[in-house]
Amino acid sequence: MAKIKAAILGFGTVGQGIYHIVNEKREDLKKSLGLDIEICAILINNLAKERPETPGVLVTDDFEDIENIPGLQVVFEAIVNEEPAYSYLCRAIDKGCHVITANKVMFSKYSIPLQERAKSRGVFVGYEATTAGGVPIIKTLKNLLQVNSVKKIQGILNGTSNYILTQMRLEESPFEDALKEAQLLGYAEADPYNDISGQDAFRKLMILSALAFGKQPDWNEVRVVGIDEITLEDVRKAKDTGLRYRHVAEIEQDENGELYASVGPQLVGPDHPLYAIEGVNNAVSLDTNYIGTLTLVGPGAGMYPTASVMVEDYAEIIGKRAGFFITI
Amino acid sequence: MAKIKAAILGFGTVGQGIYHIVNEKREDLKKSLGLDIEICAILINNLAKERPETPGVLVTDDFEDIENIPGLQVVFEAIVNEEPAYSYLCRAIDKGCHVITANKVMFSKYSIPLQERAKSRGVFVGYEATTAGGVPIIKTLKNLLQVNSVKKIQGILNGTSNYILTQMRLEESPFEDALKEAQLLGYAEADPYNDISGQDAFRKLMILSALAFGKQPDWNEVRVVGIDEITLEDVRKAKDTGLRYRHVAEIEQDENGELYASVGPQLVGPDHPLYAIEGVNNAVSLDTNYIGTLTLVGPGAGMYPTASVMVEDYAEIIGKRAGFFITI
């Protein structure tokens, strides 16, 4: 059976999740796709750091080693920050690799040039994992847009912020304690700035904007507020009046095609669709012309949800390239 | 530009919705698919009945007229009941047509033979519209199953029942008044038995079961209870204690692969994910091994939501057949 050679860039939580799922589902993927997948290389930052064993896999801190693998076809990217991720993916595309990324910081900025580069090379960019973790909002939106137009998108796009707000309310934990807990559980990064400042939600909103509206608003004109100024006292007061804080990212297109976006905390009551979205969950609502409002809810972070949608991207891309159709 | 000839079987609410959307989106579909679509025939039950004008389209009450259209490639089916829908679709498949159905009564029973027949003829069956209206649960589930296994499915699958329960609570309407209103709004059929008895939700649950687990439980062993015995008094009592009635369909697979399903009203509190699902909305939650719990919420009935997902099925099938990939 023909083999697909794949590499993973970055071996943190998500990278390890991909490795685990690919190995666990290898036989099933063989059956459904008619092609075997082999993770043949992993790019890491620090060769000295302890990491799970990956027998038979080239582990390197030099991207050139990966680039030079003969017949490499798929690159899973789970690094943070714009660079060197963007350069690596450009080089992978130039070599004829499909790329599947979880990197929202990079993709929010480079989605258009990266996809154009892929198109001209006849390969695909999978980016389901960049936005809303395990929630398949990218595929759903792509499919909807075949027939519908989207008027507005509203959602909870940062699982860490939602987890912290939930813990502050349920456990009456101060902000700092809830943040520490989120870090211990692997939801928040060691440097939580992007999560709690609203920047992470903002980047995801920009990815959704590019897909839904074919463009993004001027980044400097979007008001972005995080959850870092919400005190336990604020949360208690809201609770006493039956309300909950939610960190909401939203974008709307007016009749002239202008985009209006904002990111920040909102107080919502029991009838609001985001009221019941608790813990590390994300939710995204799409207002469309034919379907009306469609909402997706699921885990917005975590090793397996994020890695799972990346392997689903792989199955979709390889299924298409192999000329058969993904059916059950 | 090559043209795809399509026919619509049944010209009620959903059939008319398809006709309208296909005509409104024709230019966009041309651009995205590189193929034009033409609705060239409509099958109706009663030629004497008044209906919207469809200039240039063959309108007939004889399926043979449709079967004999040279080069017909797609059949949209929006009839109710098993027969003659199933026979018509078999004949369409035998002629080499892709079929796209909204008929849950037929499809819950014949999903396996219909899909096998289509496979052997090299055509596709689209059935997103059979389950949960405008909510793309079929596509989401198919995609998830590439990597995940599903343990449990739980949802509100009948928009009419949910609309009636919502109106009884919000407007303090008796059951009969709320039902009449649902009929006026086009949510409930003239004969509302399938909706209010739970049978409609049951059929949709069986479609999800076939897809998620590759089989269905013994139909006779599933307890199916409708909303027809819930009184205004019951709803008021629940409301006074902060609870809401929801009509819930659920199915679970145990470790031995046995399926356990039930359909009936449940009382839920504000923290339950189905508490905030109001009106004609449907919701489906999928418990999966890697992603965790994913929930989709959207309109469970209505002309445009249902017709829209059928046209999306068309775009998906034709995109695949034409050998290109649906991307935005």
UniProtKB/TrEMBL annotation, chains A, B:
It comes from the Bacteria. Its EC number is 1.1.1.3. InterPro entries: Asp/hSer_DH_NAD-bd, HDH_cat, HDH_CS, HDH_short, NAD(P)-bd_dom_sf. GO terms for molecular function: homoserine dehydrogenase activity. Keywords: Amino-acid biosynthesis, Methionine biosynthesis, NADP, Oxidoreductase, Threonine biosynthesis. Pathway: Amino-acid biosynthesis; L-methionine biosynthesis via de novo pathway; L-homoserine from L-aspartate: step 3/3; Amino-acid biosynthesis; L-threonine biosynthesis; L-threonine from L-aspartate: step 3/5. Pfam families: Homoserine_dh (PF00742), NAD_binding_3 (PF03447). Transmembrane segments: none annotated. Residues 10-125 form the Aspartate/homoserine dehydrogenase NAD-binding domain. The keyword Metal-binding does not apply. Residues 136-313 form the Homoserine dehydrogenase catalytic domain. It catalyses: L-homoserine + NADP(+) = L-aspartate 4-semialdehyde + NADPH + H(+). It is an enzyme of class 1 (oxidoreductase). Belongs to the homoserine dehydrogenase family. This is Homoserine dehydrogenase. It comes from Psychrobacillus faecigallinarum.
